Coenzyme A pyrophosphatase
Amino acid sequence: MHPLFDALETHLATRPSRDVNLPGIVLREAAVLVPLLLRDERPHVLFTKRPSTLRHHAGQYSFPGGSRDPEDPTPLQTALRETREELGIDVSGVRVLGSLDEVPTVGGSGFRIRPFVGVVPQGVEYKPNPDEVEYIIEVPLAHLMDPSFHRTEPRNSRGMVYEVDFYTWETHVIWGATGRILRDLVLLASALSPP
């Protein structure tokens, strides 16, 4: 196991993650898994590209996850169930490190997303569900921590101006709620990584 994963787990266990609080706006509950893995002993982050046929966030890069179903006892169960459904993997071996702050999607879909950071076991074989996943990419975390591959742009939604994060990897552009979740992970990983 990589020392950064241990440091993330220790840090996330010592600080409570924040909930979204937007007075007057009702958001549906959702959860995602932010999958980390090792490739050549280096931490990577896994993303899925959503098919262009989907109703929400079509064609965007995302973390596996979705709406919390009534039968999901906790948001973590939602994240793990959705990961199993989307990637076709056995999630019993995923080492959950903790949760990041909730992120709202107030622009259209109206969710509050609870991200859980988890380490996918070595050697796991993906069997993506083609109805939910067009393809999978694994991006080195060190690349995402390089500021030259990150930019922000102002956007306006429901009278509020907010910053949208964009990360690039080769020809792929990761943005939106996934970009905001990724920014939180990158900031945390940067603070915990040795110089």
The chain has a mean pLDDT of 89.
